[in-house]
Structure formats: structure tokens, C-alpha cells
Design a protein that fits this description.
glutaminyl-tRNA synthase (glutamine-hydrolyzing) activity; single chain; mainly alpha; Asp/Glu-ADT_sf_sub_c
Length: about 100
């Protein structure tokens, strides 16, 4: 599939990419190359092959789903300019 300069201009506009008029032929050629590669990929027979989420079969490490308070309240509040009763103190903004 071949992309002409008008189509490249429209794609750049839709993608909100500023492309100079001098660069449009190169962009059209790159887009045509991408579409040609995609057509080659469509020719590959993938019947019976399951989709993959990654290249190596790996299970993600998971932590236990336990509710905690983080156990570092004192360290967090040490950074606060004003802390009272275990919470950040902020100025009143609503009367």
C-alpha cells in the first residue's frame, strides 16, 4: 500500500504532529514502509497459536493483598511542616 503526500499530511494533522511541507514526502515513504511491513505480517499463518503477553512465559510476582497502615507514619510525618495527632495539619480554606 502506498501513502501519498496528502494522506501523510492528514495523518500528521490527526496525530497533532507539526510536519513541515518539505518533510511530508519522507513521512509518506515511512508510513508506506510501515503498512508494507504490516501486510507482510498479515500473510503469516497463526492458526492455532495462542496470543502472548510477553516473550518469556513468566508469572508476575504478587504480594499478599493485606490492608496495612504502612507502618511508617512517624517517618512520613517527620517531613510535614505541621503535624497534629498523627495527621498532616493544613490551613483552613473553607469558612
Amino acid at each position: 500500500m502506498s501513502i501519498d503526500i496528502d494522506t501523510a499530511r492528514r495523518v500528521a494533522h490527526l496525530a497533532r504532529i507539526a510536519v513541515q511541507e518539505d518533510d511530508l514526502p519522507a513521512l509518506a515513504q515511512e508510513l508506506s514502509g510501515i503498512l508494507t511491513f504490516m501486510e507482510q505480517l498479515n500473510e503469516v499463518d497463526v492458526t492455532g497459536i495462542e496470543p502472548m503477553t510477553g516473550v518469556t512465559p513468566m508469572r508476575l510476582k504478587r504480594r499478599a493483598d493485606v490492608v496495612t497502615d504502612g507502618e511508617m507514619q512517624d517517618r512520613i510525618l517527620a517531613n510535614a511542616p505541621d503535624a497534629r495527632e498523627g495527621f498532616f495539619a493544613v490551613p483552613k480554606v473553607v469558612e
